[in-house]
Design a protein that fits this description.
single chain; about 425 residues; alpha+beta; 60s Ribosomal Protein L30, Chain: A; 2-methylcitrate dehydratase PrpD; 2 domains; 17 helices; globular
Length: about 425
């Protein structure tokens, strides 16, 4: 029998090289391009504002630091290897990068944001002379809603333009935290091994990130010079920030994602792991807690949306990590888990998402700090309650409240941020 955890691990927890949105655009282009014969002559991309924002300023692996959604689409269109999935930029041949870059230079690759779209929407039309193909992704970074070749529908897994949701997401939406605790308890030995692979992958990315002299490096430098103490808070912040530094700089190393996001995977995986190790929690229990972290992250994103105006590393992955830390020591204690959820969201729930870029490492460090502090308070029976602000009486209510603020109260934020970002683009 397929468990909810198995579905989450299958669809949302996977190795990814490079930022999620450019990879998804490249995947759509590769899926369309695979149907064509001959050299790619043009690429036309239409995407939702959130995807446009997230891929605008982040470096693409194996491109010598080049950036942008349009280059990602061009790479996918010339590489034409959708089977690589989220590792499509891995081992990118120099000749293919040159070919993709030429499409941009000659203005045969064009991109636009469709402000009428909400949630993930990626449409890529690729041409090779008179031969053309279209791939549309909706509802997920790898869910093909429509695939068409020379006007003929090749595949349709959803009605284009109609929001679809995979069955497990409907199950998540109806779940309670008690359900999530039960699901985490069903984790199999094979799933534990997979989760451990994610830990090792993200730690390796952190080691690469420390070489860049960015956020993680300078937290380490503060420790080295004696301005910060080396403890679990500083270690979690510098390690998670360093892994994010590597991703956002386009270093060609994979990380294990969570909720279809690499940066969220860094927080959801590394923070519970490092805390568990610091407190000498048995490794199997730490890995089970990371399974719970993935579940909570995915649960929150069902309400928040795949691409929200507020930072998912804070209100989804940070919350998941905090709940996981509480579970390591207190087990399935819904009261303490609720305090952790409330405290993280009260603390950093207003953190804006202004796209993927090097500054994400700062937000990841803040999320790591908040999640550990909130967990420690919760384990001691302390935290933010419904008496304060927009906090609800249960963890589920608080999550729905912040999702409502994000989706309804901040409806214009993405467009304003995008206007500011695009005005700076030459």
């Amino acid at each position: 029998m397929t468990t909810l955890l198995k579905e989450v691990l299958k669809h949302e927890v996977y190795p990814a090289m490079g930022c999620t949105e450019p990879v998804a655009i490249a995947f759509a282009a590769a899926t369309a391009g695979r149907l064509l014969k001959g050299r790619t002559t043009s690429v036309l991309v239409k995407i939702d504002p959130g995807t446009y924002k997230n891929g605008l300023a982040v470096s693409i692996p194996n491109t010598l630091g080049k950036k942008g959604n349009l280059l990602a689409a061009a790479i996918g269109a010339v590489v034409r290897r959708p089977e690589l999935g989220a590792q499509l930029f891995k081992g990118l041949p120099a000749a293919r990068l040159k070919e993709a870059s030429e499409l941009l230079k000659s203005r045969r690759a064009v991109i636009s944001a469709d402000y009428s779209k909400r949630g993930i929407y990626i449409s890529v039309e690729v041409k090779a002379g008179a031969d053309k193909a279209l791939c549309v992704l909706e509802g997920s970074h790898n869910q093909v809603a429509l695939l068409r070749h020379n006007g003929k529908v090749v595949a349709r897994t959803a009605v284009a333009g109609k929001k679809t949701r995979l069955p497990y997401k409907e199950t998540l939406r109806k779940a309670s935290f008690r359900d999530l605790f039960r699901e985490a308890g069903k984790v199999s030995p094979a799933e534990l091994r997979y989760i451990k692979t994610g830990v090792e992958m993200n730690l390796a990315a952190a080691r690469e990130g420390l070489k860049l002299k960015k956020v993680g490096y300078y937290i380490e430098d503060l420790i080295h010079k004696g301005y910060l103490k080396r403890d679990i808070l500083s270690t979690a912040k510098l390690t998670s920030a360093a892994a994010t530094d590597a991703r956002m700089a386009g270093v060609p190393v994979p990380v294990m994602s969570s909720g279809e996001s690499g940066n969220q995977g860094v927080v959801a995986v590394l923070v519970p792991w490092l805390v568990g190790k610091a407190f000498r929690v048995p490794e199997k229990r730490i890995l089970k807690s990371i399974a719970l972290s993935h579940l909570v992250n995915s649960y929150i994103k069902v309400f928040l949306g795949e691409l929200a105006p507020i930072c998912g590393c804070a209100v989804a992955a940070g919350v998941g990590a905090s709940v996981a830390i509480v579970w390591q020591r207190a087990g399935a204690d819904t009261r303490k888990a609720t305090l952790a959820v409330n405290t993280v969201i009260s603390d950093i729930g207003g953190m804006l998402c202004d796209g993927a870029k090097s500054g994400c490492a700062l937000k990841v460090a803040s999320s790591a700090d908040s999640s550990i502090r909130a967990a420690w308070m919760a384990m001691n029976g302390e935290g933010i309650t419904e008496a304060e602000g927009f906090i609800g009486s249960t963890a589920e209510a608080t999550i729905k409240n912040i999702a409502r603020i994000s989706s309804l109260g901040m409806k214009k934020v993405d467009c304003i941020i995008l206007d500011i970002m695009t005005a700076k683009t030459p």
